[in-house]
Design goal:
- By secondary structure, this protein is α/β, with parallel strands linked by helices.
- It has 2 domains: 234 residues, Alkaline Phosphatase, subunit A; 149 residues, no CATH class.
- The chain has 15 helices and 15 strands.
- The strands form 2 sheets. An 8-stranded mixed β-sheet has the order 11-10-12-1-13-14-2-15, with helices on both faces. Strands 3, 4, 5, 6, 7, 8 and 9 form a 7-stranded antiparallel β-sheet that branches.
- It starts with 15 loop residues before the first strand and ends in a 29-residue tail after the last helix.
Length: 448
């Protein structure tokens, strides 16, 4: 018996749109009658997408595991098996700097301090406008010093912040000295990481970095500008702290090489501009407008619609939801989500010609002391031919009943690629790298 097959006459591969509402997930809030801000918000456009699509929840790295935005995005972009280069280098690229490849580097910041409980506690940061010239002079006083054969150089970022390049260091495998939190947490020592590739090099560099930081404090405390601040009753910026160890590996693949997709991003901050640049993605940068979440969202979606004409994958980042969470006002976050949804009126129409997914990169609780948490974040995807499930509203509890279940960050791009009719076919190897999708632009055999 012969089976007749019909050869497709059209290319039915679809582009992919991934909209990330930063810090979307949350916890039940008493002032919202036990709902999360997302559940309490009025979201008719997202609800419409849910009814046409399939829902689930994103738990980026497993239950309870809180993550930073940059690590979540790295995995969402299909790079979970590629070493993360570090946020310091990404931030530098995002502000237009050109950090070196193959040199360890760190984020450097000036902090005020006070002694409490026998430890030096970190306090305030440099104020963006009032302290601009002061911070620039203080950082300049630290630039270019060498210790144990390592020369510490800087690339400016923002007021009181720089990228610290450790030229000649053999490793970046040391811990942070910035405790991350905003106020009154101890200045901590750099330690060699237990997973360091070269434990001896990590131990030596941790000691070198500690010497540099302690020497920097002596310079800062004696600086005439800080002495003048003390004389006037102000706190000096007398400590330099480091975090986000980075290293740009020349062998790191770009987005197209790793995923098989031509990628683009609609960005709003240095972090996401830097991510797009380090991965060689096209980008359209739209400055974030916190006064108009609906208009801001609409402008981003319009830019994304244009990029979908020429790219296989478009990422849209929305900062408003995360900033609202950090105010620790659940009703305000609810209102920002409502306003953001008002800018998503074109989302359903886009899902007739593209795979459209909306989720958050992590949860940002709008109550309590946490910056980020490991709580589930709503996820929805809609696309031509996708089988809708029974979920009818966008929110954490409703999404748990969806067909997609609990997704890790590394699951998202393969899932979307499948709905886009682009899955990498296991057992087939069309290129040197096992990409996430079938390559959009394979390496063709040359014609004689």
């Amino acid at each position: 018996m012969s089976v007749k097959t019909t050869k497709p006459t059209t290319d039915d591969r679809l582009p992919i749109l991934l909209v990330i509402l930063d810090g979307l997930g949350d916890r039940a809030c008493a002032e919202l009658d036990g709902q999360t801000p997302c559940e309490a918000a009025a979201t008719p456009h997202l609800d419409g997408l849910v009814r046409q699509g399939s829902s689930g929840v994103l738990v980026p790295f497993g239950p309870g595991r809180a993550t930073s935005s940059e690590h979540a995005h790295w995995s969402l972009f299909g790079f979970n098996e590629i070493p993360f280069p570090g946020r310091a280098a990404i931030e530098a690229l995002g502000v237009g700097q050109h950090p070196p490849r193959s040199e360890p580097m760190f984020h450097l910041a000036l902090r005020a301090t006070e002694v409490r409980a026998g430890a030096l506690q970190l306090g305030g940061r440099a104020r963006p406008r009032e302290d601009a010239s002061l911070a620039a002079e203080l950082l300049a006083a630290l630039d270019g010093r060498s210790i144990n054969g390592v020369r510490f150089e800087q690339l400016p970022l923002r007021t009181g912040e720089a990228v610290l390049i450790a030229r000649g260091a053999a490793t970046r495998d040391v811990s942070d000295t910035d405790a991350l939190f905003e106020h009154l947490h101890a200045w901590i020592r750099p330690l060699p990481l237990v997973e360091a590739a070269d434990p001896v090099a990590a131990q030596n560099f941790a000691l070198t970095l500690e010497q540099w930081l302690r020497g920097s404090r002596r310079i800062l405390r004696a600086h005439p500008l800080n002495l003048a601040r003390v004389a006037s009753g102000q706190q000096p910026l007398d400590v330099a702290v480091t975090k986000w160890a980075s290293y740009l590996d020349p062998a790191m693949p770009d987005f197209a090489t790793q995923t098989g997709l031509r990628g683009a991003a609609v960005t709003d901050t240095a972090l996401y501009r830097g991510l797009a640049r380090v991965l060689d993605m096209s980008l359209v940068d739209i400055p974030y407008d916190s006064s108009d979440p609906a208009g801001d969202m609409q402008r981003r979606l319009s830019a994304a619609a244009g990029l979908l004409e020429t790219h296989d994958f478009v990422h849209v980042h929305v900062k408003a939801t995360d900033e609202a969470a950090h105010t620790k006002r659940p009703a305000f976050k609810r209102d920002v989500i409502t306003a953001t949804d008002a800018g998503l009126q074109d989302l359903l129409a886009l899902s007739t010609r593209a795979v459209v997914a909306v989720t958050g990169d992590h949860a940002s609780p709008s109550t309590g002391s946490l910056l980020h948490s490991g709580d589930p974040t709503p996820f929805v995807v809609a696309a031509p031919g996708l089988r809708p499930d029974d979920v009818v509203s966008f929110g954490e509890r409703a999404a748990l009943r969806g067909e997609q279940g609990r997704l890790a960050a590394a699951d998202v791009l393969p899932l979307l690629v499948g709905f886009a009719n682009r899955p990498f076919f296991l057992g087939h190897r069309p290129g040197a790298r096992r990409s996430v999708a079938m390559p959009a632009t394979p390496d063709f055999m040359p014609l004689d």
